[in-house]
Amino acid sequence: MLDKIIDIDGDDSATGIKNVTFNEPIFQGHFPGSPVFPGVLIIEGMAQTAGAIVIAAEREKGSSHLVYMLTIDKSKFRKPAIPGDKLEYHIKKIRRRKNVGRFYARAMVGDTLIAEAEVGAMIIEQE
Predict the structure, then answer these.
(1) At residue 79, what are phi and psi to the nearest 5 degrees?
(2) Torsions phi, psi of 81, nearest 5?
C-alpha cells in the first residue's frame, strides 16, 4: 500500500507516497459507483512507512530487521481517499524502547488531513 518513500530523516521521520488509481482491484467492490480507498489500507500504508524508518535506520547500523505492526491507537478518518488522489504518509517517531517503536502517522491529500493514528511496531532482528 506504498508506492515509494520520498524522505527519511534518520530514525525520526519519513514520508511515503501512495497514488490511488482507479484500476486497483479493491475498487471493483468498494464501493461500486462511488469508489473509496479503504481505511484499513490507509492504516497499512502508515504502518509500512513507519517500518521503512526502522529498517533504514537499522541497515545503517549494519543489521537486518523485520517490523511487525502491534497496535493502532487514536485512529481518526476525516475524509475519504478516492481514485486520482496522491496520499502522502507523514510519519514521526514518538519513541522507541528496545524492540518496540511508536509512531504518529498522518495521511494527507495535498494540504488536507484525511486520516491520523498512532502505530505501534515490534522490531525483530534477523539472523
Answers:
(1) -150, 155
(2) -100, 140
Q: Where do the structural domains in the chain lie, given as residue ranges? A: 4-125
First CA to last CA distance, the chain: 27
Active site residues: 30
CB contact set of 91 (below 8 Å; sequence gap of 6+): 13, 14, 15, 16, 46, 49, 50, 53, 103, 104, 105, 106, 119
Residue 125 contacts by C-beta under 8 Å, 6 or more apart in sequence?
Answer: 58, 63, 64, 65, 99
Residue 108's closest CA among 82, 91, 89?
89
- 13-34, pLDDT tens digit by residue? 999 999 999 988 888 877 878 8
> What class, spelled out in words, does domain 4-125 have in CATH?
alpha beta
pTM of the predicted structure, to 2 decimals: 0.92
